Amino acid sequence: MNAEPSAADSLRFEQPVIGPAYGRVYKLLLLFCLAALTVWGARLALQLPASQLRSPLTLWGLCGFLVVLYMGIVLLRSTTTVGPDQLRQAWFWRKEVPLAAISDARLMRWRGLEWLVAPRLYVRSGPGPWIGYHGASPELWAAFETIARARTGR
Fold first, then answer.
1. Average pLDDT of the chain, as a whole number
2. Are the C-beta atoms of 151 and 11 separated by less than 8 Å?
3. 9 versus 128: which is more confidently predicted?
């Protein structure tokens, strides 16, 4: 893997770097919370009389549970890619920014706690908003550091 930019003024990677957006411990905590919520909801549903199971309030509760379940599945499957010419994260929606368009980058990383809190690379293109990308693999951390050094001068 060549994680160094190929030219000083243009940030480009030879090989794409692909990895999970969130770490194993985070995913295990998420799975535990989803399982606990599922068990709690099932026990609650079993205690309700049959007439209340068809009420609009129960339906809204089920819809809320399905949204939380969907969000959990998306977080479990989320990946980050530093491609030859763009930074991309598959999340609830696709976040993409061309590497050449990045005007500023900041790496937020708690050294020693990467196993719990995935490092984040915040990038901005021009005067636009900051966009955060999570990375939970050492290869992504190295690519994030390269981008942050190239775009902040640090």
1. 88
2. yes
3. 128
- Per-residue pLDDT, 4: 46
- Contact indicator for 18, 135 with CB cutoff of 8 Å: no
pLDDT surpassing 80 at residue 35: yes
Q: Which residue in 69, 67, 62, 64 sits closest to 44, CA to CA? A: 62
Q: Give Cβ neighbours of residue 78 (< 8 Å, ≥ 6 apart).
A: 20, 21, 22, 89, 90, 91, 134
Ramachandran area for residue 99 (φ above 0: left; ψ -120 to 50: alpha; else beta): alpha
Domain coordinates in residue numbering, the chain: 17-22+79-152, 26-74
CATH architecture for segment(s) 17-22+79-152: Roll (2.30)
Spatial separation of the C-alpha atoms in residues 53 and 57, rounded to whole Å: 9
Q: What is the pTM of this model?
A: 0.81
